[in-house]
Amino acid sequence: MKHLFTTLAFVGFMLPAYVSIDAAREMKMVKANEFTGVTKSHIGTDLGKGYTGKGVVIAIFDNGFDINHPAFRDASGKSRIKAYVNVDCRLFTENIAATIKEENRHLDLHGTHVAGIAAGASPVNVQGEYRDYMGVKHNDVRIPFAGVATDAEIVLVNSNVPMLERAIDVVKKYAAGRPVVFNLSFGDNAGWHDGTNYRGMTNYLNDEGAIVCVAAGNEGQMDFAVSAEAGVGETVTKVLPLPLNSGAATLYMISNRSTPFPAELVAYNKNTKQEIYSVALSSGLKLGTFSEGELGGEEWSNVFAAPKSNTMVDAPKVSGSETECYKYKLTLNYVPKDPNTVVGLRVKVSDGEKVLATIFGVKEDTHVVFPMPELEGWAIPSSNGSITTLSTVPGVISVGACSSADSHPMYNNESLLPNSTKEGEIWPMTSYGVSMATDEALPHVCAPGVDIISALNNNNNESALDYSAASVLVPELSRFEYTWGPLTGTSMATPYVAGTIALWLEARPDLAVEEIKDLIATTSVKKEGDHRWGAGIINPYEGLRKILGLGSSVNEIASHEPMINVSQDGIVVTTDGRAVTVELYDLSGRLVARNASQTNEAAICTETLSNGVYVLHINDGANSISRKIAL
Q1: How far apart are alpha carbons 584 and 629 in whole angstroms?
Q2: What is the pTM of this model?
Q3: Which pLDDT tens digit goes with each residue over 538-584?
Q4: DSSP state of 159
Q5: For residue 191, is it left (φ>0), alpha (ψ between -120 and 50) or beta?
Q6: What is the pLDDT of residues 200-221, one digit of tens each?
Q7: DSSP secondary-structure letter at 197?
Q8: Element counts in the chain: helices (H) and strands (E)
Q9: CA distances from 177 to 119, 204, 299, 517 (A)
Q10: CA angle, corner 362, sides to 195 and 203, nearest 5?
Q11: With the C-alpha atoms ordered 95, 97, 98, 102, is the resulting torsion angle positive or negative?
Q12: How far apart (Å, rounded) are the C-alpha atoms in residues 500 and 507?
């Protein structure tokens, strides 16, 4: 069961905290690109040249592809989507649209939007309408909403391929030595968090070293995990609480060591705190009513209601004895006869050992979570373990989501649609956890993933929804209207990282996965206070500077912050020698004052303005910032 990690979320109005006002630069970016430094990477600010992913292949594993969208054209109007890998892992370089439609991969919004973030461009010679981040509508202009690697070649891959490693290999062979980065914005929570559910992919990445970006997941507020840990020299016995009356669920439990740990299914009376049932887990254990008859014995039948209750255990890699394993898989459904009954798994860990259990509903899109314990000393569940199992494959780059703006434009309404996540904040639904194979904290990094504006699929009737931010009518395609709009999720953040890596690979095509992880760890904008951040917010520009041996620009950027002096007479903006343009907007987005200066100082008279809060925009030709000003 694969999930595409996308959500839609929007209501109300919120003033943006940062707005670009230079029209020429507005045409080259989306908000996220300015937030992360992608815009400076495209322009080549202090880099010697601009970087756009030219010469790099980005493979998008997904569903819902509109290959005719103008966001995927190059400067000459030709499509940059050069190939498609179908469900049988066959590669097509001709009749791509027909093949995608034949496999019913053409309708969903997801794949087009993801591809647009990774490699969509501001379409050349295509006029349309869009609303900017101040709520101002622009007509008969070039659409500004571009992705990260705007010149990269794109290969689309059916996300339902049965063997991911085989499809990865097909794309690598097609690339014929050119650098490739893979984007997988899907996954689920089923399986042990050590990558063994994707053993073929794990082995392939270990041998071939492909660069694979994976969505962390959107369940960061779901209690999908519970664990027991012991410090060095300690021995700890814990009971992991199990859900009751929740329907069929599957639980995966694993130790961080390939050594046996004992585990028992136990039931207690929560009022008397007395144990009323226990049985050691073993491979092939069946409790309840199955086709071969009732199993479990009289004691089981006294505690649990048949035929609703059942347990099936698979304990692979049994070592020592059938009751001593380091992995367990349980399919379970517990319906106690007495409402005072609570059920759990009793485990014993020692000397630095950790046991992690994760759970999910057997029925598709049905969430089952661990309950809070009703007895003292039982383990407390959390979302630390909600990370997708695909993220735990050794060698992949797991990506969480953050916000790059307080709001986004809405095409058919003058207001701006906000999301509860503010600029620079973690998206709280980002899943997180630890790989039990490598002990890596996941996700590795975060990227803009909240209300990210990208290409929408014209094949899907939903593509013209009111939340779209831009629209064009392509003359040569007659009636076909194309739109851009916001989606939210780690699905959106992941292609942002894939596109970033494409920029880095353009600068140095021989970068290996571990080198890329080091770039992420050392150049990302550090954030504290939440496990979901990983290394912080991806910083494409600083990564390029490090690759090129230019050193960090952080101190240089800080030194360019302008001085703003507000008095009763007006506002004076002073820079470190750069000519500036300043504009003042009221809270409705109306321009109320403007001044451009060829010196390092610009002043705005405010004597005729009413007292209140305004937004001051400052542009020095290379950078733009905005600040709230109280008069």
Answers
A1: 9
A2: 0.83
A3: 999 999 999 999 987 754 433 456 778 787 778 888 876 667 788 88
A4: T
A5: left
A6: 999 999 999 999 999 999 999 9
A7: G
A8: 12, 38
A9: 20, 17, 64, 21
A10: 15
A11: positive
A12: 11
